[in-house]
Amino acid sequence: TLQHASLEAECWRKANEKEEANEDHDDLPTTEVETVPLWIPQIPTCQIDASWINNGSVSGLGWSLKDEMGVEYFGLRACNRSLSALHAEMEGLLWAAACMRDIRITSVRFETDCSDLVDMTTNPMDWPAFATEIEEFQRLQDDFEDVRLSHIPRCRNSRADALAKDARTRD
What we know:
Layout: H1 2-15, E1 45-51, E2 58-66, E3 72-80, H2 85-102, E4 107-112, H3 115-122, H4 131-141, E5 146-151, H5 158-170
Parallel strand pairs: 1-4, 4-5
Antiparallel strand pairs: 1-2, 2-3
Helix pairs in contact: 2-4
């Protein structure tokens, strides 16, 4: 048993010895891990739409915002029937821009499925019947650091479309 205890002590001592300091660790492969954020914040995107029917008493407006962190917000509103579907689209843009300003969004990308609305803001002189509304949008733009309006296919604007229709049908 004395021999067994001595052997056990020797094994314990070897197991707990520090590795020799002169070992060359430079030959070991090194691995560098690059950390990349899973999601890069984007400029908030606000999709807008309006719902208008010729014999209706109200127009419906809707917007759907995805902020820089990907959180979604929405708004819907019924208002007195606009003169035309295009007037309702412009009213929707003005309302959405005012809402973004009021919740302190400083940069925003508005998206609409109405190409005439985009043309109206790009070529305002071609749309004299909307001069007042265009001027109001230009004043609202001054409240933002960066604001843009672009056209998207209708199939990509389904949430804002549904909100606008819901607002109109609720009357």
